[in-house]
Amino acid sequence: MSETFSPAANEHFNFPVKMGVFDFTPSKLLLETVQIFDRFFHDMESQRKLWRRTYQGNVVNAFHPDDRRGIFVAAMTAIKEGTTFRYRVRVRPGGSGGKGEWLWVNLVGDHETVGKGVERFYVSFSDASGTIKTERELSRKERLLKIASLNSSTLYFVYDMPSRTATTIMHPKSFPPFPKVLENFPESLFETTKMPDNDRESFREMLRKIEGGADEATCDVQMRRRDRMEWMRMKLINSFDENGNPTETIGYVERCDALKHAEKVLANERAMIASLSKHIFLAVAFNVTRDTYLDTLPPTLANIPDVDEGSELFREAIEAEPEIAHQKPATRNVLFASARTAIDPRIRKKIFRDFSHAGLLRLFHEDKRELRMEYQRMVDCHVMWVETRLVMLPDPATGDVLAFFYTRDITRNKQWEEILSLTLAQSSDFISLVDAKACTVTYRSVSDEWQKLFPDLALDVPFTGDKIAEKIKDTLGITPPPLAEQIRTVTAAIDKTGSFVTMYEYTDKETGKTRRKQLSYCWLSKAHHDILQVQQDITLSYEREQKHTADLRRAVEAAEASNRAKTDFVSRISHDIRTPIGAIQNLVTFAREDINDPEKISRDLDRIESSSSFLLSLINDVLDLSKINSGKITLSPTPCSFNDFVKDIVNMLEPMCSPKDISARVRFEETDIPLLLLDKIRVKQVLMNIISNAVKYTLNGGEVEFSAGADMMPDGRIMTKFIVSDNGIGMSEEFQRHMFEDFSQEHDNPARVAGTIGTGLGLAIVKSLIDLMGGTIAVESERGMGSTFIITLPFESAGHISHDDAGSDEDNVSIPLNLHVLLVEDNEINVEIAARILDDFNVTHEHAGNGRQAVDLFGSRPEGTYDAILMDMQMPILSGMGATRQIRAMDRRDAKSIPIIAMTADAFEESMKKARDAGVNEYITKPIDPKTLHRILKKMTTKNGKTQKKYSIKYD
Fold first, then answer.
1. Burial code of 186-199, b = ≥16 C-beta within 10 A, e = fewer?
2. Alpha carbon separation from 935 to 383, 817, 835, 941 (Å, rounded)
3. 3-state class of 125 per DSSP?
4. How much is the CA Rg of the chain, to the nearest whole Å?
5. How far apart are CA 13 and CA 17, in angstroms?
6. I want to staple 499 with a disulfide (CB 3.0 to 4.6 A). Which of 29, 290, 522, 587 is the partner?
7. Distances (CA, A) of 722 to 634, 683, 689, 706, 728
8. What is the tens place of the pLDDT at every residue in 109-132?
9. Ranked by mean pLDDT, which of 235-244, 716-725, 739-748 comes out on top?
10. Residue 403 and residue 422: Cα distance in Å, rounded?
11. What is the pTM of this model?
């Protein structure tokens, strides 16, 4: 094509720039030249003719061979997408055949269609060599920066405020694993790094400053790195546009554990000066690098006058450290104030040499950054021991060396050391040094007693082994091993364990008693030259130890005997419990077989009743014995008429004797003594136990006699005496020595009736209760001749009562009660038993299976529905104690007044107390005794003013 184009185009491009117009023909892969302006050739240091020869009508031929294919692709892409043509090529001055370096040229231009299959490009040329060089240099620097960053300890990220996203842009190898992108920043960062709560608030405060437009903000926080927390320093930096609005936020994270530790140590030392004001009398902090003091305690130390440079002390200081002459006056004055009071010249020299400005710098560079020194000072005309401690640290912020001095009074400590040394010397026979190489002994301290035994023993004079051996043999009568042999034994032991202790004994010639001495050895110093030898008299401590060992042996034997007794107890009680249970199980089987034989089934039921009564008696005895042995049993004395009490016992005697046709004799005359303060239950338990034994071990047709009496004593108390005699089988003298022990029974008594059962605990309980009441029990017995028990019990007086007030009503279970109660019980069998007993009393009831049902039933019924509540204590869902508390807390009148009677198998006093504290009025132990239940229901409902009636209303 020709190198001319339309006048408009020629006018448009007619200015001195590098421009060209080309026609692109895809079918021929040609980029033919329409026009290239002269300015291009001038800048390329070439001529038009030379270029024509080079590109031969196709300008592509003038470009570097590696760039030719790419220019066609760029042209096709621009035509297809309708975009601006852009490409970078290499051109050599003078064309492709010229010489010199290839130059980079940027081609940029628009295009239009000018014919079929022809697209015209209007292209500008610009030199890109400088840009390429700059880009390469920038790329090189970026690579270097990346390598340096990856091997540093700093992580970089970009924070995008609108999306609250942090993107890591550089993650060093040494930094802990960190997500590439963190959305919901900073909450995601908190969870990822397990940052503590207080540090999270510091981080949020930093973020608020940045989002508020601050140039930068910093905070120190803790982050979890692998398996431990590390301190990290976070910094955010804002970039702003021309309007001052943040455009980009760059952040970096670097570890600062070491810095934090240094800051903490420095802060502790700075705080110590103030905190130790009560424990030290001098503290100073210096900036060693700047030769200034930071703080002093007391503050007046900073106001001391300048040192007289003509004084003897100044000359002494310069001699120790010449650089003191150039030290700043303020710090030098403090140095001289400290050194002036030191008594020992050698200590003053050390203070001048080491604690001056030059000395401190020398110590720091020698890595001697902590020193301690003890010495004596003269303070207010008094000599005192002090300890000066020096600590030097670099300031993390400035790098300056800081020095902290603390001087404290250790006079008392030194006095205690002297006291300890004197005490050791006084409590020892001697203290000596054994020269392990020279085989000599030098005594440094000898007690008066040992000096009396060895009057020629001089202090601080080395003695040979032979001379010592002769003195010991002549004085104590024993021959020690040769000293060299002793030293070998001792050194081998203390090299292995650090110390060695041995003992020897001899007979005191004056008293004839055996004396025991202990020798202790250890190295005096790390040089392992001298052995410290200390001898002490251990005669008394040895005797005490032997006595203690004997006491321990007896205690062990007692414990073993106790364990054997416990094992024996478990064995016996297991046998005694299993026996009636086995009988009951067998008899129940027999009863089922004898169901149609009234006589046999009656006999079976009698035996079941007998076995169950024995089992209950055994359990009660075990519980009583347990409470007695643990010290938990207590007496509950109440006023009682002696005459009435004895009548109660007599009334029970006849029914016990009748079945065996035993004659019951009573010797008792009523007295006019005052009321007694006694625990009726426990006294009755003692007497009935003795009486029941008398009846049990007296053969049919025999005799049992009971007598009672009481007399006033001079101190106002009343002494009662009870005697129970029988003509039964009696006891042997041997058994009488063990009769009050647990489970004691004389099974080998030939007169004992076969099948007679007993727990063997009754007399043990009797003896314990009598001892508890301050009484006595005596026994007279002989096999085959019967037994007599004599019991005396003292009681306090409770005053007089009239004859009309005496006596008590017997319970009559045949009297109908006409009540309606709430029965709370979870055991079906117990419910059936209780219901049957209540039916016999003409008492209707509603049943609740647990404490929650009881509370709901009581709360849902009208006030006054129930006359009483029978409450089991141990139930699921809600216990009886919990149900009682909730009922008592209800806002209704009968909740406070209704009688609540506990029914439980737990017979311990502690449980009864807890139940009463919860609001229970009375306490019945299982199995339920109908008489007891009848009496309590009658008493409680009458006391609460209830009208006894027969309930006919049934609730759904």
1. bebbbeebebeeeb
2. 89, 10, 17, 10
3. strand
4. 56
5. 8
6. 522
7. 22, 11, 13, 7, 19
8. 888 888 877 888 888 877 777 777
9. 716-725
10. 39
11. 0.34
